[in-house]
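Journal club prep — side note

Before the paper discussion, L.F. wants everyone to see what a predicted structure for a comparable chain looks like in C-alpha cell form. Sequence:
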Amino acid sequence: MDDMSQLPDQPGDRRAEVRFIVLAAAAGILTGTAGSFFHMIIDRLLTWPAVLSRHLDGAPLVGVAALITMCLTVASVYIVRRYAPEAGGSGVQEIEGAMSNLRTVHWRKVLPVKYLTGIAALSSGLVLGREGPTIHIGASISAAITSFFKVSDVERRGLLGAGAAAGLACAFNAPLAAVLFIIEETHSQFPYTFRTYMGVIAAAFFATVMTEMIGGTAPDFSMSVPTPELALLPAFVILGCVLGAVGVSLNAAIMGVSNFVMAMHKRVPYLMPALIGLAVGALFILFPRAVTGGENVIVMMARDNMALSALLGLAVLRYVSMVASYSAGTPGGIFAPMLALAICIGLAFGTALSGLLPAGAAVPLAFGIAAMGGLFSASVRAPIVGVALTLELTGAYTMTLPLIATCLTANLVAQWIGGHPIYEQLLDRTLAQAGVHPERMPKKRSGAGIA
C-alpha cells in the first residue's frame, strides 16, 4: 500500500478540499440515481419469460426464449465491440488501469454503451452481476465530471475511485464494503490522500442515500441465523479450504474460456456468444435457478430446504453458466453470480455436515452465508471486503466470526495453491492486448490484497 504518510494533505487550501468532496458527492448522487434506475429496468424486463409463457408452452416456448437471449447476447457483443470495446465485462479492471494512467475512460462512449447493453445482457438471463456495470458507470460519471472541472491528476484518479465506490454501494446497498473495496482491491492504483479518501466515503454515502430513496432500505438478501457455536469454527475453516480451491478454479475457468471465445471470434465471429445465448435462454425456461445474476436465486436458496444432490447439481450448473456468460463479452459483473454459486456450495456443505452431527448442531444457512464471503475472498482476494459485503447484504451480524474464519482460510488457501486475483489477471490481459510494456504494468499483489 502507498505510504500512509500521504494521507494528510498539506495544510492550507481548505477550499480545494471542499470542492473535491462536493465533486465526489455529485458523482455519488448521479451514480446512485442512474444505477438505481438501471436495476429497476432490469428487474422489470426480467419478467419476459413469464409473459412469453402466457402465449407459448413446451418446445416452442424453450426455442423462442433461446432465440431471444441469443439475439440480445449477440447484439450486445456487437455494439460493445463496434463502439466501446472497454465496456465489455465488469469494467473493474478498466478503472484500475485508468487509475494507474495505463487506460483512458472514454466516458462519452462507455456510458451509453455500458448502460444500454448492460440492460440488454442482464435482462436476457445471462449469469452476470449488476455491480460490474454500475462500478464502471460510476467511474465514467466521475470521468465526465473531471472533464468539465479542472482537477489535478491525483484528484482525477481519486474521483475515479470515488465513482467506482459509488457504483458498488449502489449495486448492493453496501457503502462500507464499497469504501473497503477501494482500499483493499485498488490499493496499488488509488492515490491515498486525506482528500481522496474522504471523497470515496462521500461518494459511497450519497450513492447509498439515493439508492435507498429510490429502492428501499433493507439489505438485499436479508437473512437471519442464530450465532453458530464456537465448536463449529473448525468446520468453517474446512469450508474455507474448499472455497479457496473453488475460487482458483473459477478464476482459471473464466480466463481460459474467455480466451478461447476471443480466439474463436477471429475464426467465426459471434458464434460463441450465439451458442451461449441459446443455452442460457433455454435454461431460463427449463431451469431458471441456473441463470440470471442470482439475486432472486440467493433469496430462494436461503428460504428453501433443497436436497444435497439438488444443491450440488445447481452449483455445477451455475459454475458453468457463469463462466460461459462472462466469456461471451457482454457487459456484466461477477460478484452477484459468485455469491449465488457460493451459497449453493455452502448450503451443500452445511447439509452434508448436519447429517453427521446431532440435530440442530449445524445450520446449513450459516454455511451458505459464510460461503458467500469465502468464495469472494478466494477469487477477488479481498477478504475484508468479503466479510463486510456479506454482513451488509444479509444483515446476519451473528456470522461475523465464522465469516472471518472462512474468508481468512479461503484467501490463504487460494494464495498457497498459486491463484491470482481475478481483476489482476483481467487487467494484465487487457494491458497486454493494448500493447502496454510489461514494466509499465502495476506490481503484482500478494494474496491478501496488500503489497
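L.F.'s comment for the group: The CA atoms of residues 416 and 447 lie 8 Å apart. Keep this in mind when we get to the figures.
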